[in-house]
From TrEMBL:
Keyword Transcription regulation: no
All residue ranges annotated as the VWFA domain in the record: 210-392
Name by which UniProt lists this protein: Calcium voltage-gated channel auxiliary subunit alpha2delta 4
CDD domains: vWA_VGCC_like (cd01463)
Listed SMART domains: VWA
Domain of life, source organism: Eukaryota
Lineage: Eukaryota, Metazoa, Chordata, Craniata, Vertebrata
Protein's organism: Mandrillus leucophaeus (Drill)
GO molecular function, one term: voltage-gated calcium channel activity
A Pfam family hit: VWA_N
Gene name for this UniProt entry: CACNA2D4
Amino acid sequence: AAVALGTGGGTVKLWADTFGGDLYSTLTKYSGSLLLQKKYKDVESSLKIEEVDGLELVRKFSEDMENMLRRKVEAVQNLVEAAEEADLNHEFNESLVFDYYNSVLINERDEKGNFVELGAEFLLESNAHFSNLPVNTSISSVQLPTNVYNKDPDILNGVYMSEALNAVFVENFQRDPTLTWQYFGSATGFFRIYPGKGMEYIQAATSPKDIVILVDVSGSMKGLRMTIAKHTITTILDTLGENDFVNIIAYNDYVHYIEPCFKGILVQADRDNREHFKLLVEELMVKGVGVVDQALREAFQILKQFQEAKQGSLCNQAVMLISDGAVEDYEPVFEKYNWPDCKVRVFTYLIGREVSFADRMKWIACNNKGYYTQISTLADTQENVMEYLHVLSRPMVINHDHDIIWTEAYMDSKLWTGPGSRKLGLPHSLCLSFQRSHGILLGVVGSDVALRELMKLAPRYKLGVHGYAFLNTNNGYILSHPDLRPLYREGKKLKPKPNYNSVDLSEVEWEDQAESLRTAMINRETGTLSMDVKVPMDKGKRVLFLTNDYFFTDISDTPFSLGVVLSRGHGEYILLGNTSVEEGLHDLLHPDLALASDWIYCITDIDPDHRKLSQLEAVIRFLTREDPDLECDEELVREVLFDAVVTAPMEAYWTALALNISEESEQVVDMAFLGTRAGLLRSSLFVGSEKVSDRKFLTPEDEASVFTLDSFPLWYRQASEHPAGSFVFNLRWAEGPGNPRPCAPGAGPASAVGVQMKLEFLQRKFWAATRQCSTVDGPCTQSCEDSDLDCFVIDNNGFILISKRSHETGRFLGEVDGAVMTQLLSMGVFSQVTMYDYQAMCKPSSHHHSAAQPLVSPISAFLTATRWLLQELVLFLLEWSVWGSWYDRGAEAHKQKKQDQLQPCDTEYPVFVYQPAIREANGIIECGPCQKVFVVQQIPNSNLLLLVTDPTCDCSIFPPVLQEATEILTLTVISAHNASVKCDRMRSQKPRRRPDSCHAFHPEVRVEAGRGWAGSSPPNPLCLGLCPHTWMPVNTPVPVLFRGNICVYAL
């Protein structure tokens, strides 16, 4: 066999040519590609080619987005004005009796069939605009935390006062039907929803801040006190956002940073860093004696250095002191670093039941514009920690400022838990705080903005096959990008990644090594740059090499920037055809035609009468003038009309072909299909629908095969990178990996056409072709069916389509034959391209820190509450030294479970690409005692190769060549260099743009005699037991009531 292969290159070429010719003949016949090419050729003279002005395009998109977001802001401002007016006109009534719609109780009946109190009949209807949830768009409802009495006078007065917002909610929605959820979160503890949802309070209640957390880890903090202290730190971290900066210092006999890599700096409080800190906090151990003054000096020095270097938030600064007591007041430290201006607030948290040191802890807080509280149980932690927000919000309240706060993007749990989970919307909350005139924060109003709706303003058809639009924030984080992957699969479940809303632009556009694009967009610049990029496709198995032109600008009055990408060769020009409405309308009515359901040909989601219309039905109504109220994209509709006319003959061609196929004849092709740049899709079956092998293909269930808001179909994108008239084969797995079906699209000037065929037919064609031989070689002495030959058909990325062994189908050649793949790489037949994934999920090593934070659902909230009750029981037992060892074992089991979870990581992986300039090659591989001979030959008019090898020589000394991802800088093998590189990366502060507003101080809250007293004269440090309420935004679907002691200022 080795001799035959060495001299039989002509035979292998004959096999490849014969197989390629048979395939081309079959595919052109069933796809109708030659007819389609001719139809486009016929209209070529009437086509108008326009160059796309990328800068003009991005400016237009930005202006449209700005107008849309302005409408959202105006709606929220309407709510602010109405809420403040309602509060001014309301007189508190201690004995007020008032019924309202409690979200938990509505439509509930007692055992007699009567509606329960506060649970009157409330009409609910499923509404597609609100994720198909049952809602009432004529009125809002009220949510209360379970530990709040729903007829408390404060609650009743607040709910009664806020009834005035119902009319404004409805009026806002009628004025702008693209609005989604609208909120009113009251500082008294209730939450009004139109038509219903949770919200975030913290980021709207305060300005950006630099926080240094000091935690006492001396021996006196052992046991329950340390547990409470850890929970206190975690709660503080949960109040921080990506515009805040933080560090944590533990102290006993000496001062040490819990993350040594962060020594002497503040780091951005993004989700990654917050979760990293949480894990480190859990590892804190107690010993020694607490030396507070050293820790305070270190904290003040960091804050001063960052302020002077113009780093960090450049707004509020605070020190959080968490301890079981202070033996002195540390006045010299405050005199040196903080008095008389008190630019750094100090908040003190006394841990435990002892009150011996309470006076000094109060003195420290009240003399540094902070506040003091005592936390004696875990249940007290959240409610007491949150009170510091009221202190930080006072300057904003007194100024009567209504800052627009755009929160971090978050994922609507309704959108990722249902069957349409892959159609993600990332709503963005717009929040405004409002207040009474006497300086008390009244609450927060807000509205969601679905990023999906925002990105519809950058129509896909204007960007070409590989083009796209993307949004990022002032911190460089991605809001929307086609390569943003917020979900990962764990078992059979899709889950949100812990860091899904803090993926940096540089982690997606990673080819921009100098971060020029990121820096320009952060700085609100308008401009353009070009990059050669490698774009992953087909779940990382394939790669496209493109030259992209980036166009970018800011969106005025928001912290966001918009980018538009046009790929050269595809996005630089747009083809405009000309056809009559009558002719185009006729062809649009063909039953084989569909339009991209995600694209906006006509606006159908505003008018309730239009919401049930498909895009095709809406276009037809628009063209026939049946509905004059329909608004449509006239340019896109013209393109669709032209494409419908040009591709119309394909329906008749496919129909005639199907009629000529007898049932007894060999079933070759399941279906033919085509797609155009305008999102038009035609398809025709050659078998009964029950016999189609892959029923998900070209349906919304298979996003990769249809036009979506983010991208063109995979088969369209692949075909566009190959010569017009050639076919690209891609093996698809239908209904499980045991049923592969090849898909073969071919490209045209403005469309792609293809067929889906049975693999069995492809195999039969191949084995028949390899029985051929030329007269020059004499009688046919060899074929691929011989036992002394191994034959493979592989694609241009090295994946096997045909092999003698069926279990090898679909696998990468390097896994099956590492020796041959190694040789093909060394000869340059294939090249290896290194790709990077900065959104990967990996199993953690024992040293790797990260954690997942699930989204909230009612079930998870119930489970959380259950876990809390159990935890309280355990802590009670701990406090009385009962069953301590049992708790320790449970904690260890929980820790082990956490370590088994997938965690965010950075990976690199290889992709292998055939070099088409090498049409044929052969070689000999030395495998110890024997030699392995192989021949590789290009199969014409396709992306396929024929590989023939000698199976008799054992080359197992060569390891397999794998397409596996490896973690970058994994800590499983720790070296000084790796640790240094990892630390440098963690410490690096990427450029960011700070929020435009800051409310750190107000002259009415002034300092007297260097003591930080608020008011006209320094009063005694009187701390009253007040009951303010605020909202807890993290991991809870309902508001949480907070009660605690605060140090009161006289304003």
